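[RESIDUES AND BACKBONE]
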Amino acid sequence: MSLQERLRRVIRQDVQSMHGYAIQESAGLVKLDAMENPFRLPEPLQRELGERLGRVAINRYPTQCVADVIAALAAHVRLPAGCKLMLGNGSDELIGLLALACDVPGAAILAPLPGFVMYEMSARLQGLRFVGVPLTPGFELDEAAMLAAIERERPAITYIAYPNNPTANLFDERVVERIVDAIGRQGTGLVVFDEAYQPFSSRSWLPRLPGHEHVLVMRTLSKFGLAGVRLGYMAGAAALVDEIDKVRPPYNVSALNAEATLFALEHADEFARQADVIRRERARLAEAFGRLAGVTVFPSEANNILLRVPDSKHAFEGMKARGVLVKNIAGLHPLLANCLRVTVGTPDENTLMIDALKASLA
């Protein structure tokens, strides 16, 4: 039997028909395609972290260090009373665990589109129905369509990315509140706010968790500045988090990741300084892009900006030829026609990106 025949028999048909998560080759390029924090730690902190990681007991399973991370994060985010945190290997794992925990007969996962691709992927991998509700042409929630889908589908999970990925905007708060209330009245589903870009956003739902026992808030430390550490966390009513935590694999967060997280939280002022630079650079980029003929700049509350250009393929290739890698997302959804998603980099990287886009449009 050939390998291909064996694969056809062994691997699920829906998995065979899927596309893997695409990661662009970035060697030798200014990497501004993945919403990473562009800043490394100052050298004294690099040395301090290296020495600290060298003392970690990597011969033991991570137990107390994970509990220490949960306590430190709870203090850092000012976790409301009555709520609890659980950790994931990045927020991607948490998304998968939610699909696993909520896989009741007939369950569906609902999310606005365009949105983060892992919501749909997690649903399909778990055998759940995925219901995508298109945003308006201005990338706002279509309230009527969302409420109709919620009433019709009674989803087990409704994701609201806050700010949204890849559009980077915060949705109208009044519409969000009405959606949260509608799901609360149904009594059969959860709302999950994905706050991956919280360090750059002006609003959060975490302080509003009390009184909303059907709401969870999920975050990642990737945008905080620890993309290489892979640590996400989710907060909600203690009883709800306890139930979801039952499907979490034991020791899913390594001792090295836990120690690096504790170190970062002890130096949160450095990461706050970096986030402040990114927010100021975001404003500079938006202003510079807005002066370019034929470019539409959409509002951003994240560390990336969505642009619409006359020809996104041409602009992407032109920027790459000039050493700057961004993301051409025109093919992700019809609403994203001719759109580029650009990450906010260092001041020098951003200047290179402005010049590369300007030259590519000429």
About this structure: The mean pLDDT is 95. Residues 226 and 261 are 8 Å apart (CA to CA). The radius of gyration is 21 Å.
